[in-house]
Amino acid sequence: MIVRHHMGEYPVRFVGTNELNHEGVWLADENVLRLWPALAGHDPIVIPSGETSKSMARYEQVVRTLAHRGAKRNQQLIAVGGGVVGDLVGFVASSYLRGVPFVQVPTTLLSMVDSSVGGKVGIDLPEGKNLVGAFWPPVQVDVATDFLKTLPERHFRNGMAEVWKYAFIEDWSVSEQALRPEANLASLIKRCIEIKSQIVEEDEYDRSGRRAILNFGHSIGHAIETVHNYEDYLHGEAIAIGMVAEARLGERLGLTLAGTADRVAACLTGAGLPTEYGDWQNPGLIEAMRRDKKNDGEGLAFSLVTQLGECKLTTGIAESDVRAFLESL
Amino acid sequence: MIVRHHMGEYPVRFVGTNELNHEGVWLADENVLRLWPALAGHDPIVIPSGETSKSMARYEQVVRTLAHRGAKRNQQLIAVGGGVVGDLVGFVASSYLRGVPFVQVPTTLLSMVDSSVGGKVGIDLPEGKNLVGAFWPPVQVDVATDFLKTLPERHFRNGMAEVWKYAFIEDWSVSEQALRPEANLASLIKRCIEIKSQIVEEDEYDRSGRRAILNFGHSIGHAIETVHNYEDYLHGEAIAIGMVAEARLGERLGLTLAGTADRVAACLTGAGLPTEYGDWQNPGLIEAMRRDKKNDGEGLAFSLVTQLGECKLTTGIAESDVRAFLESL
Fold this sequence. Notes:
The structure is a homodimer.
Chain A: E1 2-5, E2 8-14, E3 25-29, H1 30-35, E4 45-47, H2 56-69, E5 77-81, H3 83-95, E6 102-106, H4 109-115, E7 120-125, E8 128-135, E9 140-143, H5 153-169, H6 174-179, H7 185-202, H8 218-227, H9 235-253, H10 260-270, H11 283-290, E10 300-307, E11 310-317, H12 319-328
Parallel strand pairs in A: 2-9, 3-4, 3-5, 5-6, 6-9
Antiparallel strand pairs in A: 1-2, 7-8, 10-11
Helix pairs in contact in A: 2-3, 4-5, 4-7, 5-9, 8-9, 8-11, 9-10
């Protein structure tokens, strides 16, 4: 599969773990290294597992390590791990020596179907998620589904949140495969990457609102992650809660077909994902939403499903309406 | 004047300080604010003066301040100051919310003739200068030469180092104007920007070696800055020393016309710039040069003047030869 972007294109290849033989500087998630000890042969820079690695402190540590290792502008970085490693290493690649090539080797379901494709990289600030980053496409994405054999169940479900998102926002037919993901996992992953890459090609820089539909559930989901300091909830868990809440918000605003939120909730519950949240009155949620990148200055922005398989960015929703809505949940 | 780049183009305008009325978030050098108090009306984020502001710590502080102020993706940043502020704010602009537009308002001679044009932005690491950054062109450059009236003499000379560099590397005829810069300063600045923007347009991403000629004197100059923790020497002072030393190195290697180094030294001495250095045996110099972005893995790289008005990137110079050369100085 080929993904096109403004500066060129990159292949997404489905490979075995034994085919991962890139030249360059390897950076890998510590859990992945423990489970796949052969990777240690590449002398990787070890990235601690978990969203807290998407921090300024970790970013600084990694670029300084590259400087110490004497990594050159013509050497590529190979990012082996989930979305955290891909986003962090991608931002490092975009900025170390003003930019070096990098290869994405996603090892989680979530990063295979979502974050490894599309060129968005970045880190979090205490003020909010992904507030610093770049558009920096990889030069290649290598999907080795073997990695999923060692993925903990909770992390598999985490990825399913993004799989279901594609069904909700763009192609309801994905839901059939999503109900039985193990039946043909590679084909499901391929379908998700196809949907994502097509949307990204139509609006690489997030300008027309087209790419923003990938953010369904993320205004509220990111706010939950921020309020919890990127602990407690995995990304997919937070956006599962966010998708249900945003579908309810859409219904409240008359933008979403009645009954959609319940169906979204049923799908996610069936996938073993959380859909409820206990702290909707936390003022930190609105504060975090205020810093969402989709906002254009007037009110808050949400990518709202209009009906199953269709989504649209809506801006300018009054903060007071959102606050009242959250308190009613 | 219009500068073209891969994504579009931007105008360089010569304006009065009273014409600086951009909408957006202002960020300004603290010394400039003290000397031009009217700028405080824009409620700028204050950047402490000096190269040490091109640090990861300052970068983090600025992006977090923008998040706290609620700066949005459609708001531009206005960078008012010298090369430090332009490079720092430019890197912030390239990465805050994955990129926002920014305007360069250079207030020093050095930033007017060099760093505000060309799109290179970045910060330093303890390991070396400009090791982290981006290619992120401004949307506009506003040159207000009025600012030079309050520029300390040492900083004016600092800028003259880069003015002389254009004479050495590309157009010896610049030397006539450089001998009497005050005679027609605006015209001299314009000529320098023309030379730089033409070189940058030919090789925006530093790939062919063409843009690298702008780095004459910088392999050694950056190493001196690094060894001194970006204190003691201003950038132009360090590269004045670097240009003389690299011209001597070029002569030693038979790549530079004999007698060139003495003429380079005479021009810079005449401009009140340092050309000697007392610590050539410091092993930190070679270590810093090893991390220079121009290196491709084999030996060290230098942009060497071949004769006055002509320069060429040379890679693969053995470290041992450079060390022996430095010790002979």
